[in-house]
Amino acid sequence: MTHAPSTTSTPARPGATTPETAPVAIVPRPARLTRASGAFRLDPATRVSAPDELAGVVAWLQQSLRPATGLPLREGSADGTGISFDLDASLGAEAYRLEARPAGVRITGGDAAGAFHGAQVLRQLLPAAVYRTALVTGVDWVVPAVDVEDRPRFGWRGTHLDVARHFLPKHDVLRFVDLMALHRLNTLHWHLTEDQGWRIEIAKYPRLTSVGAWRGSTQVGAGPDATQDGRPHGGFYTQDDIREVVAYAAARHITVVPEVDVPGHSMAAITAYPHLGVGAVEVDGTPVASPRQIAVGTEWGIFEDVLNTEQSTVDFYTDVLDEVMELFPGTWIGIGGDECPKAQWRSDPRTQQLMRERGLADEEELQAWFIGRLDAHLAAAGRRTFGWDEILEGNATMSPGATVASWRGMTGAVTAARRGYDVVACPDDQVYLDYRQSDGPDEPIPVSIPLTLADVYAFEPVPDALDETEARHVLGGQANIWTEHMDSPRTIDFFAFPRLCAVAEALWTTEPRDFDDFSTRLAVHLSRLDAIGVEYRHESGPLPWQRRPGVPGRPASREEREAYIESVVANIRAEA
Question: Which residues on neighbouring strands pair with residue 477, listed in sequence order?
């Protein structure tokens, strides 16, 4: 980024573009937008009115517009002037209609979420300086006269945020929620546990955070030449922190879907409670007096240390999930299920004994058994399981509400839909935002294949292989942000934006997409991100302080990546 400009703006020069004639650049693109004549000006007399059901939307709008404009924007009667809100259920869920004229702005939502999306669009119609958080003088706070009619294509428009590899402080999570809301994204998939750290307080098992939330060092870079920084890293969210984030997101019509990853990616939990690990129980069922002690992970990758499959371990995690469900009121609860090596299970006599007792043919069926126990617990509580596409392995039979995140390409999406499960599309070769953004030598810690802005904009959540009935199982999609190589909020900004703007449009707009049109609107939209302070990647490439010279990456060609994915989805491809 360049240095931030002064928060004091000067009036437009004679002959310059005026707010009434400036291009309207809404991101994501609305279904219908037409210009009318004139403009509406906010001033000290402007009032905001709404039915009681939309009090939260009004409060958000006032809080969003007051700092930069300095205007009181008091509530008043709906007399056709000012800013007024209304509801019309016939518009549909999350849909809205916005009419701006010189006398005022009227926003009608199909529900409260739709009214909120309309309020976000109203903010985008104002000068970009409205996104600043202190008084800006010399700006004409004008809304061009327009008519907007809009609705989302998908109900699940998400972002996955990994806070386990690198902890993200609460205030930065709240900021990220605001950035999601700006782009009409409505689902935050919050990845809270990993080999490298456990980030959610569980009252019944305090060592998960007192021990599992901290590691002694962190890998820097990727591949065989990576090093260690030797610096302890950690952090976790208290239950009050969690409640705050969930409530903050709900006020912005964003649902938070937590993830507690099992049975792999569990080294932090096993470090805190060694009896969860393989080898902690003798063949006769007697617990080992001193189970093997491991450490919270300091490297990136997939590791052999996984959970054992004792009933006591299932009980431990149902206890954890009970506390998670109390904190997260949404429908879906994530339990991971990805990248679980089977070597320890194959070599452990006790695990093999359990497989025989349970009538399981192989270790894939054992994982399906373990996931199935947690799925049944969630279903009994009226919730739905959310897991990575590995939960389809091992002839898994899950509750009807189980939902699959298809990340290893779209094979999981096709297989899940054909089995009757709902799907969230998040294929790594389209929407993994930790992947490098070009083939250029200055990309920081380059991972896997390049995913350019145009690549991400082309994201299509519904596989061509699905027929119309099967396609209804695709709830939508999400971009995935994995933070092995993102050690600060600034770095997350760089990898996420503006590619997340493109994902938001791919998931929202019902109209044919046009990358050139998107790019034109994005050029305007970036001034909003500048005002907020988002350190996005510039089209010209990383700025000097966004580079990581000398830190090795792990780049791959598309051919290498495709060969790898083919090898790991072979066991779920039969139905695809």
Answer: 157, 425
DSSP state of 192: -
* pTM score: 0.96
**pLDDT of 275-307, one tens digit each?**
999 999 999 999 999 999 999 999 999 999 999
d(CA 555, CA 576): 28
- List pLDDT tens digits, range 453-500: 999 999 999 999 999 999 999 999 999 999 999 999 999 999 999 999
Residue 12 has pLDDT above 60, yes or no: no
Task: Band the pLDDT of 81: cuts 50, 70, 90.
Answer: confident
Please, which residues bridge with residue 159 across strands?
A: 188, 479
Round to whole Å and give the CA distance between 561 and 110: 43
Distance (Å, whole) CA 41 – CA 43 = 6
Q: Which two tokens stand for residue 548?
A: 């990581």
Query: Residue 546 carries which side chain, given as an amino acid letter?
Result: Q
Identify the bridge partners of residue 82 per DSSP, sorted by sequence position.
Answer: 104
Confidence band for 8, pLDDT divided at 50, 70 and 90: very low
What does the alpha-carbon distance between residue 280 and residue 271 come to, in Å, rounded to a whole number? 12
Percentages of the chain per state (helix, strand, coil), in multiples of 5: 35, 20, 45
DSSP designation for 552: -
- Token match 């959540």: residue? 461
Residue 438 burial (CB count, 10 A) = 15
Going by pLDDT thresholds of 50, 70 and 90, the confidence category of residue 13 is low
- Which of 130, 54, 122 shows the shortest CA–CA distance to 82? 122
For 404, what's the count of Cα atoms within 13 Å in the CB-facing half-sphere? Answer: 33
Report the candidate in 49, 73, 68 with the shortest Cα–Cα distance to residue 7: 68
Strand 142-150 with 96-101, pairing: antiparallel
Q: 108: part of which helix (H) or strand (E)?
A: strand 104-109
3-class DSSP assignment, residue 167:
coil
**Residue 429 amino acid letter:** D
Rg (CA), the chain: 25
Question: Regarding beta strands 227-228 and 219-220, do their DSSP bridges make them parallel or antiparallel, or are they unpaired?
Answer: antiparallel
Distances (CA, A) of 192 to 102, 195, 260: 48, 11, 6
**222 and 484 Cβ atoms separated by less than 8 Å:** yes
CB proximity list for 84: less than 8 A, separation 6 or greater: 48, 49, 50, 78, 104, 105, 106, 107
Beta strand 156-162 with 187-191 is parallel
Residue 22 — pLDDT band, cuts 50, 70, 90?
confident
Rounded to the nearest 10°, the torsion over CA 165, 169, 170, 173 is -60
3-state SS, 348-406, equals CHHHHHHHHHHCCCCHHHHHHHHHHHHHHHHHHCCCEEEEEHHHHCCCCCCCCCCEEEE
Residue listed under structure tokens 């065989």: 224
Query: Is the previous residue joined to 544 through a cis bond, with omega within 30 degrees of 0?
Result: no
Residue 194's φ and ψ, nearest 5 degrees, are: -160, 175
CA 148 – CA 27 distance, rounded (Å): 13
pLDDT tens string 121-134: 999 999 999 999 99
Q: Are strands 104-109 and 82-87 parallel, antiparallel or unpaired?
A: parallel
